[in-house]
Write a structure and sequence with these properties.
heterodimer, A: alpha+beta, 8-stranded mixed sheet, 14 strands, B: alpha/beta, 21 strands, 32% helix, 24% strand
Chain lengths: 289, 486
């Protein structure tokens, strides 16, 4: 059981989004944008970066990724974990790169704050190297910050049920600790995993909190979050705003296409929808890909 | 501007913020390959339906309606492009004509190329030239939006039925005075039924000096300088008054006819003898009573006299106007409803009499709020018979529903001022010479003294015009209780 702690604390959140805005003869055009939102003295302030537009082809994808990795994480040991770079995954990969950079930047600039990540504190994946996550969390800890990561979706299950759907009849706000999670290498969990139900309503989220923090610090961090941020459907407003601010609207996509056409004279192709062509109205049902 | 879609004779054009287009403007959609161009008029300007705009607006207001503060690092400067797309507008146009080799046809059956067509503003003077809106008898109505004068030809009012309508204080009477004086200037004969005494000083300038029209404006004030003697009247004119204005039943009208003939044979046509004759006539008492009540209505109107001296003669003024042009202003300001009908019946009867006998060629009749004095059957007469007699009517009203629908259908020219009431716009939109959308979309946004001119005068190219000022003494101002003191 948690009690909101109204002791003033800065709440910061980071989110990024990516979008394929068109195809060219040789590849695709990608737009990436990131946003950080800080709630301080009951006021929200945002910083939005982008959109950054990339023309990624099979020929340049490795180079583009490597340049960005070097530019963002010069201090990193190396970027050997590029993995297999798939052109289709490039928007997500570049956006994750931007997200990690923003997370590190906040961790290194804020003091005694709650830093909210979108997702989990899992590392060891191609776009989240273990060392990088380790350093980000370390930097945060050094300045008295505590990192809380909210996952909208989780695949963790207990007895076949999703952990976010097995809710006891307690009065929220509360969080439940999960014990005995053993990820398969090279995946590493840098956080303790909780199921957090912070407001009334049927939603609960997977919440990862920095493993290195003590149990008291973890509970205190969530209680401070309850006392300093608005929560709707168990989700913090700061993180929701970060998500809203970085997401591309259709209008923005048209504007970016307009920019590309006018600035670079690129002609964006409208590829025919093969599913539509072959199957007509049955071309794209719910859940088909 | 880019062609977006065409549905019937409605064309939708996508316009961007650097292209300013307003309602009423004309555009030329040129398809060079087809060698043709569509002339379209803007009837509405809307926001283009850009996907994602709602999300964009909601995003900027997440914090209890207050703008969230922050900074954007936008190295590629995409933001101006977003604004550019967001502010794009959809221009709804009505196709007016097709231009091909400088010839205009009303066709809208072809489709210009969406990708190749060029769209540009069509200056009003160019359009007027193309549409051949000119003539030998120009009347300058005022200036169009691009400050060019809008000139119509006086002959476009000749033989026509016109309507001037709009809500109060938008400038209807002003335009009617302008048209009337211009017609007088071209030696036309004009008769005005002046309900509020607004036209009586048209012969004076605003600083109360005589103007060029002074000698051509003849003001007739019923029961004052305008009276008629029975001797001057034809029986059918008086019967018209008795039957239509005073609702005399048919049997009584037959008896009256006999009395009239009896008096005429004895050369005793005067009001006194008429009264005596009714008193002594051998007839049913009910008929006598009916005749007496009408007789006293005639007497009480003060319009009928046995002393013709000192009164103005309508006929004389009409003949004078026939020679040099002139306006007969029938001032109905201080006249009761019944007396108004008596006077109007008399004037119209007299006009028909003079026109049928070809003593007059034609008359332009200006009727303000005609429903207050025109009898029911005249409405049909005006669109059918009167035109053939040579009475060309212009109705002026702020209550468009008081004019019958068939009048709108037959109207050749409509001068439409601002209306905001949907019902009023609905009524006017029944006019045959204009489409409902044009009336509803454009008229609603007309500023005061701006008029949408529709019909033959502008060759069916609806034009918005700011009516020019007149240097005449205005009399149509509303009398106010709370008047500002110096």
């Amino acid at each position: 059981m948690l009690k909101p702690k109204h002791e003033p604390a800065t709440v910061a959140a980071i989110d990024t989004s990516s979008m394929k805005i068109g195809e060219t003869n040789t590849g695709m055009l990608i737009a990436v944008r990131g946003a950080t939102v800080c709630k301080q003295n009951k006021q929200y302030k945002y910083m939005r970066l982008g959109p950054f537009i990339f023309h990624v082809t099979d020929e340049n994808k490795k180079e583009v990724y490597a340049i960005l990795q070097t530019a963002y994480f010069t201090a990193m040991h190396e970027h050997a974990h590029q993995g297999l770079l798939n052109l289709i995954q490039m928007p997500t990969r570049i956006a994750t790169l931007l997200e990690r950079w923003l997370q590190t930047s906040l961790a290194k600039t804020l003091n005694n704050s709650l830093i909210l990540f979108d997702g989990s504190l899992t590392s060891g994946t191609p776009d989240t190297p273990t060392q990088q996550m380790k350093e980000t969390l370390h930097a945060a800890r050094e300045r008295g910050n505590i990192v809380l990561a909210f996952s909208k979706m989780t695949t963790l299950r207990v007895n076949g049920h999703l952990i976010t759907e097995m809710l006891p009849y307690y009065k929220p706000p509360y969080m439940l600790e999960t014990i005995g999670l053993k990820p398969k290498p090279p995946i590493v969990l840098f956080g303790d995993v909780y199921v957090a139900r912070l407001t009334h309503g049927s939603y609960a989220f997977r919440l990862d909190i920095d493993k290195e923090a003590s149990a008291t610090q973890k509970i205190e961090a969530v209680e401070k979050l309850l006392g300093n941020d608005l929560l709707s459907q168990s989700y913090p407003e700061t993180l929701r705003l970060a998500h809203i601010l970085c997401t591309f609207t259709a209008n923005e996509v048209i504007a970016m296409q307009h920019f590309i056409t006018h600035k670079y004279g690129l002609k964006i192709l409208n590829r025919p929808d093969i599913h539509r062509l072959l199957f007509g109205p049955f071309g794209r049902g719910e859940g088909c890909s | 501007m880019k062609l977006y879609r065409k549905e019937g004779n409605i064309l939708q054009i996508l316009s961007f913020p650097n292209e300013t287009v307003e309602k009423g403007d004309y555009l030329l959609v040129e398809d060079a390959e087809a060698g043709k161009a569509l002339i379209v008029q803007v009837i509405d300007v809307q926001f283009a339906s850009i996907p994602g705009v709602l999300e964009e607006l909601l995003r900027s207001l997440p914090d209890g309606g207050e703008l969230i503060q922050g900074a954007d690092f936008d190295p590629l400067e995409i933001a101006p492009h977003i604004t550019y797309i967001q502010d794009a507008s959809l221009i709804v146009c009505k196709i007016r004509a097709t231009a091909e080799n400088e010839n205009l046809s009303p066709s809208s059956s072809w489709l210009p190329s969406r990708s190749q067509s060029t769209i540009r503003k069509l200056p009003i003077p160019t359009l007027l030239k193309l549409a051949k809106v000119d003539g030998k008898l120009p009347i300058i109505l005022g200036s169009t939006k691009d400050s060019s004068p809008l000139t119509i030809d006086a002959s476009s009012l000749d033989g026509r039925l016109n309507i001037i309508t709009g809500k109060k204080e938008t400038g209807k009477s002003h335009l009617s005075k302008l048209l009337m004086l211009s017609l007088v200037g071209y030696k036309a004969t004009v008769v005005v039924f002046d309900l509020n005494g607004e036209y009586v000083s048209l012969g004076m300038t605003s600083d109360e000096k005589r103007n060029a029209y002074h000698d051509k404006i003849h003001v007739f004030a019923p029961s004052q300088n305008f009276k008629v003697a029975l001797k001057q009247l034809n029986l059918h004119v008086l019967l018209g008054i008795l039957i239509h204005a005073l609702h005399l039943p048919g049997t009584s009208a037959r008896e009256f006819r006999r009395i009239w003939q009896s008096l005429k044979e004895r050369d005793m046509l005067n009001m006194y003898e008429l009264g005596e004759a009714i008193r002594n006539w051998h007839c049913n008492q009910l008929v006598r009573d009916a005749l007496f009540s009408r007789y006293y209505a005639l007497v009480n109107s003060g319009f009928f006299t046995d002393e013709a001296a000192g009164t103005m003669l309508l006929e004389e003024c009409l003949f004078k106007a026939k020679e040099h042009g002139g306006a007969i202003i029938v001032n109905l300001k201080n006249t009761s409803a019944i007396d108004r009908q008596i006077v109007v019946e008399y004037v119209l009867g007299k006009l028909i009499e003079l026109l049928t006998s070809w003593k007059l060629a034609a008359v332009f009749l200006f009727a303000e709020e005609a429903h207050l004095y025109l009898r029911e059957t005249y409405w049909d007469d005006i669109v059918t018979r009167m035109r053939h007699f040579g009475i060309f009517t212009t109705f002026i009203t702020n209550q468009p529903d008081t004019i019958r629908e068939n009048i709108y259908r037959q109207a050749d020219n409509i001068f439409l001022f601002n209306f905001t009431n949907e019902h009023d716009l609905e009524v006017v939109s029944r006019a045959a010479r204009v489409d409902a959308e044009t009336v509803k979309f454009i008229a609603r946004d007309l500023p005061p003294h701006h008029c949408l001119t529709l019909g033959k005068a502008v060759r069916d190219f609806p034009m918005v015009v700011k009516v020019k000022a007149l240097d005449v003494k205005t009399m149509g101002e509303t009398r106010l209780f709370f008047r500002e003191h110096d």
